[in-house]
Fold each of these.
Amino acid sequence: MKAQIRMGESIAVMVVFFFLIVIAYSFYVKIQQSSLAVDIGKAQELRAIQLAQLVYYMPEVQCSSGTQLVKESCFDTLKLEKFKGILAGDGRLFYFRLFGYSNISIHQVYPPSSWITPDYDYDNDGTKENILLYSRNAPQDDPIRFKSTKVAQMPVALYDPIQKKYAYAYLVVEYVY
Amino acid sequence: MSINRKSQMEIMGLAIIIILLMLALVFVVRFTLIPNQNAPKKEFSQAQIAANTLNAMLQTNVEECNEATIERLFVDCAQRTSIIDCGTGGSFVNACDFLFGNPPGINSFLKNSIFLNTLDLWEIPYTLTFNDAQEVASDSGDEKCSAEHVGTVYSSRDLKEAKIGLGGGTVLIVQMELCS
C-alpha cells in the first residue's frame, strides 16, 4: 500500500514535470516563430532596398552624355519613356527575373506641374503625378506567399533633355513577398 | 542506506531546480537585456537617402527663379550678390529668403516644395545646414536632428555633405543630417 502511494507520488511528479516541459517548449517555439518572422521581414526590407538600388543605378535610365555617365542621382526622362515601353513589351520576361512581383514608380515632387516629356499616370484624385515604370501583380491564389509588401524610396532628379531642365522626384519600389 | 538515497534524491531535485532557473535566466537575458538592434534597412538606406537628396536637390531647376538650379541659388545666397530674383508678382525676393524663408522657416522653398513631400512625408527627422549658418529642419521628432541628440533622442544619425566650389579656394558646404 505504502509502495503504491509512493508510486502514485512519483507518477504525479513526473506528470507535472512533463507538463512544465511541454509549456516551456511551446513558449520557446512561439518566440522562435516570431523572431523568424522578424528576420524574414528584415531580409525582405533589404531585398526592397536592393531592388531600389538596382533601378537607381541602371544605365537604362541614368542620365548620360555620350558614353559617359555625367550625373549621379538622375534619371533621363526620354530613357524612362523608352524603358517603360521595353518593360511592357519585349523585355517583360527578362526584367521579371530582376524585379519579380513589384511596382516601380517615380513621383514628381517639384515642380508640381508636369513639364517633362513622358506621359504621367495620374492617381484617382488626379493630383499626384507618377510615372509607373513597372508593375507586376503577385498571384492571388497562393495562400502563404505574396501577402506582404515592403516599400523603399529614394530621391532622384528627373532630367528632360529636350528642355534641358531638372525636376525633383523620388523613386518608389514596392516589393511584394 | 535509505538516508543516503533520500539525500541523493534531494540533491537531484535541487539540481533540476537550478537548471530550470538558469534556463529562465537565459531567456530573460536574451529577450530583455540585449537591446534591439536597428533594422539594417534604416542604417543602410538612411545614408543613401541623405546623399541622394543632396545630389538630386542641387540639380533641380526652380521655375520661380528663372529656372536657376538650387546649387546656383546657394551660390547667390552665399555671395550676397542678389543676382537672381525669385519673386513673383513684381516684388524682388533674393535667393536666401527664397530658400530658407523670411523670417527663417516661414515660406521656405526648401521646406515647402522639396522636403514636405519627401522626408517629412516619410517621417525622417532631418536638418539641412548651409555654411554653418542657415538651416531647414523637420517638424517631426521632439528635438532637432543633430549630433548632440544622438544617444538620447535619436539612436543614429547620418551626415552627408555637398561642396560647391566658388573659385579662389572658397567652398560652400551644404550638410544633410538624417536621424532615426
Amino acid sequence: MPDVHAALADVVARERLRVVASLIRVFGDWDLADDMFAEATERALRRWPVDGIPANPGAWLTTTARRRAIDVVRRRAVESGKLAEVAMQESRETGELPAITDDRLRLMFTCCHPALPLDARVALTLKVVAGLPTAAVGRAFLVSEQTISKRLQRAKQKIANAGIPYRVPTEEMLPERLDGVLTVVYLIFTEGWAGAADGALADEAIRLGRVLLELLPSSDEARALLALMLLQHARRDARTVDGSLVTLEDQDRSRWDTDAIGEALALLRAPARERGSYRIQAEIAAVHANAPHADHTDWPAIVAGYDELYRIQPSPVVALNRAVAIGMADGPHAGLAVLDELASDPRLSGYHPLHAVRGELLARAGQPADGAIELARAAELAATEQERTQIRRRLASLQSADSE
Amino acid sequence: MRYLMFVATDPENAPDSTGEGTLAIEEWVAKNDAAGTRIMGNRLRPAEDATTVRRRDGKVLVTDGPFAESREWIAGFDILECADLDEAIAIAAEHPMAAAGRLELRPFWPLEF
C-alpha cells in the first residue's frame, strides 16, 4: 500500500486551488468551498487506505467535495423552504464546466479586487489562493488568528454585499486589475504590507507567481515578476551571515542559487512587447546576477535600467537607486550631485537609505568624516535592529580606516 | 444588483487633466438609460438648500443645512442596475464627475418583510 498521507499531501498541494476555485464558482459560497474541500480530504484519509488511491486523485477530491456541497446546499434550502434554490443549484451543477483553469484565475482576480482594502486582498490571497491556514495568515500580519479570521470574514462579506464579481475582468479592465494582482503577489514576496519582511512568505509568493504565469502565459509582466522574485530569492542564503545583513556588494556570490538565476534568465529571454516596471527591475537584477564579482557589475547598464524605470515610475526610491548606480558608474561625485537634487524631496524625509547612500558616497569621495555623520544618522532612522547593525558595522570600519 | 451612486465633489484632489475616458453628461445618461443600467438620477441643490429632520423627545426638530459638515458636497445621484460591481465601476468611470469629482457606489441592502 503506497503512503496515503504522502499521496494526499501531494494532490492537495497540486489540486487544492483548482478544486476550491471551481466550488466557489458553482456554489458561490467561499466558506462552503473551504469546508467541503476539508471534508473531502478527511474522507480520502478514511477511504483511500481501504479502497486504494484512486487513479485520478484530483478528480476524486473534486467529485467528493461537490457531492457533499450539493447535500449541504439542498439541506439548507429545505430547511429554509427555498426549494427553488435547489433547482437553481442543480441546473448550475449539471452545466458543463468550462476551462477549469479559469476558476483559479477568477479566484485570484476576486481576491485582489481593488474594492477590497489592501490588507484584505493580501490576507484572502494567502488564505484562499495559497491555502495557508488562518493562523499562519495571522502570523504573517503579526496579529492573532481571531483578528485575521474576522478580517477574512469581513472581506468575504464585502464580496457578497457589494457584488464583487467572480470572474476574470473584461479586456478593458484587465491590464489595471492584473497590475493589482501582481502588486499583491509582490507584496507577499517582500511582506511590504506588514513591515515584517523576514522572508518567510517568499516561497509562497513565487508559487503564486508560477500559477499566475501558467494561467496568463502571454502576460509579460507576470513573467517578469516571477523572474524578479526568483532573482531576488536566489540571493537569500548570501544575504545574511550569522543573522546580520550583507550588502549586495559584499555577498559571497558562490552562495547564490544558480538554478533560480538560470530559470529567471530564461524567463527574461522571451522578448517583452511591453516593458513594464517588473520587466525593468528584473533586468536590473539580472545584471547583478550576471556579474561573477561585484567589481564586474555592468553599472552603466544598471543606470540605463533605472533611467527607464524612473520614466514610468518616478518615485523617490527609484531615484535613490538611480543615484547609487550613477555613483558606481560615474564616480561618487556624480552620485552625490544626483543625491543633492533628491535631498529636498519631502517623501524621502526620514528615509534612512538616503543617509546611508550619502554616507557611502562621501566616504568613497574621500570625505570619511562627513560620511560617518550621514551613516550615524541612517543608523538612528533605521527601523530594524538588523539594519542598524549593518550600518553601525560599516560606520565602525569607516572610522577605523579614518584613524589609520 | 442595484447601487446608489453618489456624485460628489472632491476638494482634496485636482481633476483629471487628460480629459479621456469620460462622456458628456447627456451622453452618459442617454447611454445608460438605453442600456437599462440607469433606473433614475438627478442633480441635487447645494447644501445651503438642505434641511435636516429628526425626532427627539417626541418633537420633530427641523434644522437648516446638511447633517454632515464637510467641504465636499453631494451634487447628484443615480440609481444603477448592474450585473455586478465591475459593471457599476465601468459605468461610474465614464461619468464626467469621475474626472471632475468622485463617485461612491453603495449597494442596495434590500429589506426583507
